[in-house]
């Protein structure tokens, strides 16, 4: 088997006195979208933030394309080709949509061909290009947050709950955009609570509970096994179609 693009081994993270990650083992194959599922408080967001160096691991390793990320600062990790879409979107409300995109581009230069591709996925960004990002709706801000991670080719994109609080029509648009991003062979690790979205997009899946990965496999197999869904997640994916 090929070496996975991202591998977490025995990963522990403390935040103050709290021991959040308690030995996370996770592999993310190159060219796939891996869903990271689990109940609230399981450690999913902390996992993404630890990968990006926003939280420091207290033990274990994070390997990306054979490189150890542990000693690197967040900007250095990003320069390796890793994009990050945080749960809070991280949009600069006082800057225009264009300025938000420029900040995410290496050297502040936007590639027009790639920009046209992004506009085809998120037409609202073209309409509001010169307006403050604070004027956007919640769904449009999420589109901007994802577009910033797509403004340059990335080997890996980490996305934290992109559908949170969004209307079903906006979720459908995000699913289509993520499917298009998958076609570029970009590797994606996504935290998501919307199981319709998880089923539509996921190739592989890892389920976390209490700071550990308690299940890993193929998303289609989890989606087809309601008993396993209930045991791991306390609910059925079929109830969230």
What is the assigned CATH homologous superfamily? P-loop containing nucleotide triphosphate hydrolases
Number of DSSP E strands = 10
Task: Please give the CATH architecture.
Answer: 3-Layer(aba) Sandwich
Number of helices: 10
Distance between the termini: 34 Å
Order of helices and strands: EEEHEEHEHHHHEHEHEEHH
Number of domains: 1
* Helix percent band: 25-40%
The radius of gyration over CA amounts to 17 Å
Oligomer: single chain
Mean pLDDT: 92
Parts with pLDDT < 50 across at least 5 consecutive residues: 236-241
Note the beta-strand portion.
Answer: 25-35%
Order of the strands making up the biggest sheet = 6-7-8-3-9-10
Q: Main β-sheet, in a few words?
A: 6 strands, mixed
CATH-assigned fold name? Rossmann fold
Protein name: Amino acid/amide ABC transporter ATP-binding protein 2, HAAT family
Family: Belongs to the ABC transporter superfamily.
GO molecular function: ATP binding; ATP hydrolysis activity; branched-chain amino acid transmembrane transporter activity
Pfam families: ABC_tran (PF00005)
Structure write-up:
This is Amino acid/amide ABC transporter ATP-binding protein 2, HAAT family. It comes from Tistlia consotensis USBA 355. Pfam families: ABC_tran. Belongs to the ABC transporter superfamily. The chain is α/β, with parallel strands linked by helices and about 240 residues long. It has helices at about 45-50, 75-80, 95-105, 110-120, 125, 140-150, 170-185, 195-200, 220-225, 225-235; strands at about 5-15, 20-30, 35-40, 55-65, 65-70, 80-85, 155-160, 185-190, 205-210, 210-220. The strands form 2 sheets. The chain has a 6-stranded mixed β-sheet with strand order 6-7-8-3-9-10, sandwiched between helices. It has a 4-stranded antiparallel β-sheet with strand order 2-1-4-5, covered by helices on one side. Helix 3 runs parallel beside helix 6. Mean pLDDT is about 90; it is low at about 235-240.
């Amino acid at each position: 088997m090929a070496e996975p693009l991202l591998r977490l081994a025995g990963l522990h993270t403390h935040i103050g006195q709290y021991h959040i990650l308690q030995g996370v083992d996770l592999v993310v194959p190159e060219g796939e979208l891996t869903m990271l599922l689990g109940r609230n408080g399981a450690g999913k967001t902390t996992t993404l933030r630890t990968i990006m160096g926003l939280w420091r691991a207290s033990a274990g390793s994070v390997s990306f394309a054979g490189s150890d990320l542990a000693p690197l600062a967040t900007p250095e990790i990003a320069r390796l080709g890793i994009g990050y879409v945080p749960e809070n979107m991280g949009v600069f409300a006082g800057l225009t949509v264009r300025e938000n995109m420029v900040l995410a581009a290496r050297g502040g230069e936007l590639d027009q061909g790639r920009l046209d591709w992004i506009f085809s996925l998120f037409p609202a960004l073209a309409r509001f290009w010169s307006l403050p990002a604070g004027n956007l709706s919640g769904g449009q801000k999420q589109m901007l947050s994802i577009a910033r991670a797509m403004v340059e080719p990335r080997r890996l994109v980490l996305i934290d709950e992109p559908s949170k609080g969004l209307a079903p029509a906006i979720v459908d648009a995000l699913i289509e955009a993520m499917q298009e991003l998958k076609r570029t062979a970009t590797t994606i690790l996504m935290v998501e609570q919307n199981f319709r979205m998880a089923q539509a997009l996921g190739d592989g899946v890892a389920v976390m509970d209490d700071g550990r990965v308690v299940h890993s496999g193929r998303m289609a197999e989890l989606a087809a096994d309601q008993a396993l869904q209930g045991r791991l997640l306390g609910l059925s994916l079929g109830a969230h179609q």
